[in-house]
Amino acid sequence: MQSTQPILVRVIEEPVETTGIADILLGALGLTGVMLLAALLLGGALGGILIGIKRIRAKYNLEPTPDSEALRVTPSSSTL
Length: 80
Known about the structure:
By secondary structure, this protein is an all-alpha fold. It has helices at residues 21-59, 67-70.
């Protein structure tokens, strides 16, 4: 015959960690620091790329014609 005893399962909950203001502030400062570091790195990379493009254009004389020359704008000697 089969045993008719019930099987008891005891569920043990993990202890809940309390979150204090210090934990929140450290987390926010950490996130801000990561975002600041990412902004600095991306800004430096973009600046380096723009400077490199400008130097390559100057080296190979690829500078576009300024708008003032393309439109033939000259300063006038008479003022109204």
